Automatic annotation (TrEMBL):
It comes from Cotesia congregata (Parasitoid wasp). This is Ig-like domain-containing protein. PROSITE patterns: IG_LIKE. Residues 8-116, 121-186 form the Ig-like domain. SUPFAM superfamilies: Immunoglobulin. The lineage of its organism: Eukaryota, Metazoa, Ecdysozoa, Arthropoda, Hexapoda. Transmembrane segments: none annotated. SMART domains: IG (SM00409).
């Protein structure tokens, strides 16, 4: 029997920036399912950790497990896998599998979280084409005669997703005449 609104599994997506900490959520059903037996976290088929109230946390033997923690409160409706110092290689499909003392379909609880890792470009350089001077935030150019064509270049190294450039004057987006783009393969 499947009860409308009760999902034995859930899918979600999280984005995290390389070098930061990310928290992947796992919804718990402990109070209505007779208490928690265990929580297991995986990345693909690689086990990160297993938690049970009686044994505590048992970690897998891998880099993600070494950078991961999980907090659990007995009557909580959610717990999180916290991964510190997020790496590009951490990207992928994670699975939280919570099992309970009561064994029935409504208490099945497998959740899939797709983790996407973004990478900020290491540098961003804006130059004025005529003298190739590096411009910093707040730089004033001018005086410039109205109607004069001005060429500004924006350059960055690789990022994920591939960096895009939009030019603004105040809060108004400017029309770009020429666009050159180079795609990266991080």
């Amino acid at each position: 029997m499947f009860i409308l609104g009760m999902e034995p599994w859930k899918k979600s997506e999280k984005n995290g920036e390389q070098g930061s900490e990310i928290q992947l959520p796992c919804i718990l059903k402990s109070p209505k399912c007779g208490g928690l037996h265990s929580i297991k976290w995986y990345r693909g088929s690689q086990r990160i950790l297993i938690f049970s109230e009686s044994a505590g946390i048992t970690r897998g033997n891998n880099d993600i497990a070494a950078r991961s923690t999980m907090n659990y409160n007995q009557n909580a409706t959610k717990t999180y896998l916290k991964i510190s110092d997020l790496k590009l290689e951490d990207e992928g499909l994670y699975k939280c599998e919570a099992t309970y003392l009561a064994v029935n379909r409504e208490c099945n609880n497998v959740q899939h979280i797709t983790l996407n890792t973004t990478v900020r470009p290491k540098f961003l350089r804006i130059t004025e084409e005529d003298d190739n001077t590096n411009l910093t935030s707040g730089t004033i150019l001018g005086p410039i005669n109205e109607g004069t064509l001005m060429t500004l270049n924006c350059e960055s190294d690789q990022g994920k997703p591939v960096p895009t450039v939009e030019w603004y004057k105040g809060d108004k987006r400017l029309k770009v005449v020429v666009v050159k783009s180079i795609h990266s393969s991080i």
